[in-house]
Write the structure tokens for this entry.
Amino acid sequence: MDRNYFIKLVFGTHKVADLLVKEGKQGGQLKTAANSLLSDLLLICEENPVTLEQKKNILPRTLRGIGQVQNILNQVKDGSKVNPQNFAILEQEYKKIPDMLVEFFVSQNLLNSVKEEEGEDTLQKVPETRPGQGVDNLAGPRKLSLRQEKILEFLKGKEKAQVWELQKMLPEPVTKRTLRRDMDDLMHKGRVERQGEWNGVVYKLRQSKEELAN
């Protein structure tokens, strides 16, 4: 658990909140929610004097705090003049925190790990980026990873592909969960689209408006 990452994330949230205040939106409410969440996250990060059992008791409140921040972001982004990428980055970074918390508590033997079932796309899907990477680049360009570039190149030669096919194609070992995060990011960027459900989920390149018109 990286306390500096959480501080940086909330600082980035404050920057967006300040812009929202100027628009007469809920910037102050966003700051308050982010600050309250940060307080709980820092308690979980601390080695002492908070015990592991106390940290476990803080977890439900922390998860509710994440949901509150996400709800405010979702409410204020519509009609705002703030760069949409700023909201996208913050939303993606906040989505990572529940997984980080679960991994921490599992490592402390306070929670049972959840085994991902084959073909079941039920876990949170977020882009695979270094924590804080998005916050560092608020309003900046979102580049593709080398693995995502390989995936797009592969899809150019195929009409559609399932996750297991992408996993087999890539030279380096990668989990299906990580690939689903990559594909979710590519969908967010408008590069691919998903079709089907459960074991029948396939991915294909998204056609541009020009291609659809021809």
In short: The domain at 143-213 is CATH 1.10.10.10 (Arc Repressor Mutant, subunit A). The chain is about 60% helix and 5% strand.
